[in-house]
């Protein structure tokens, strides 16, 4: 019995060490998708116009990254809050923790390179290397045409600055670890011709998916 008890203690310690090492790796080493690309998006009227259409009607970046008035039907965007962030997702709406939508106006993104914006939109990895909680469906954005992503970047660079800050997110265990395993490499595709209505429609539907 003493040998059995000693063996169980050793097994327990070994399992604890392995589990601790695995959690440390997930927390400290992931996500590991490489550096942000070195790119500079030229802001042109055509890109801004395309980005405005996508961000407001397809990928709905502005819908999420603005303050919404949920006392009204469909929660319309509050005036002068476009891109300012601040929406909170918590246990009241079924979230395992608290997630705050960040500001995406130049006030918050002025220190981000275009490559860092491209990476976060298409892979879910932020400027500091941490993982975005997948309220933002970056796995679908990562299947868009890179030119459309450039257009979104060009558009949000032109948003009026809004001086807002949001608290850090607080995720429950084990999601606070698992979130680091969720980002994935982009699988960019070529945007179909608008003349091919079926393929182009499928492209837009995929880009508009939200969880």
Describe this structure in words.
- The protein has helices at 2-29, 45-57, 61-64, 106-109, 114-123, 138-141, 146-157, 175-178, 197-207, and strands spanning 88-89, 97-100, 170-171.
- Helix 2 crosses helix 7.
- A 3-stranded antiparallel beta sheet has the order 1-2-3, with no helix packed on it.
- It has 211 residues and is mainly alpha-helical.
- It folds into 2 domains: 1-30; 35-207, no CATH class.
- Strand 1 and strand 2 (97-100) form a beta hairpin.
- The protein contains 9 helices and 3 strands, in the order H-H-H-E-E-H-H-H-H-E-H-H.
List the helices and strands and how they pair.
Layout: H1 2-29, H2 45-57, H3 61-64, E1 88-89, E2 97-100, H4 106-109, H5 114-123, H6 138-141, H7 146-157, E3 170-171, H8 175-178, H9 197-207
Antiparallel strand pairs: 1-2, 2-3
Helix pairs in contact: 2-7
């Amino acid at each position: 019995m003493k040998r059995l008890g000693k063996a169980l203690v050793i097994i327990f310690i070994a399992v604890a060490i392995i589990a601790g090492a695995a959690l440390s790796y997930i927390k400290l080493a992931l996500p590991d998708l490489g550096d942000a690309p070195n790119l500079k998006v030229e802001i042109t009227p055509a890109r801004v116009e395309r980005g405005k259409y996508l961000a407001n009607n397809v990928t709905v970046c502005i819908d999420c990254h603005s303050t919404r008035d949920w006392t009204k039907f469909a929660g319309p965007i509050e005036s002068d809050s476009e891109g300012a962030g601040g929406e909170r997702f918590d246990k009241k709406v079924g979230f395992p923790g608290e997630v705050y939508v960040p500001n995406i106006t130049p006030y918050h993104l002025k220190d981000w390179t275009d490559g860092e914006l491209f990476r976060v939109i298409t892979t879910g990895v932020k400027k500091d290397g941490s993982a975005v909680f997948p309220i933002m469906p970056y796995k679908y954005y990562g299947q868009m045409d890179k030119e459309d992503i450039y257009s979104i970047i060009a558009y949000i660079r032109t948003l009026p600055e809004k001086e807002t800050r949001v608290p850090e997110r607080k995720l429950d265990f084990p999601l606070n670890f698992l979130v680091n395993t969720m980002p994935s490499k982009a699988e960019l595709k070529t945007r179909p011709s608008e003349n091919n209505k079926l393929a182009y429609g499928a492209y837009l539907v995929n880009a508009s998916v939200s969880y």
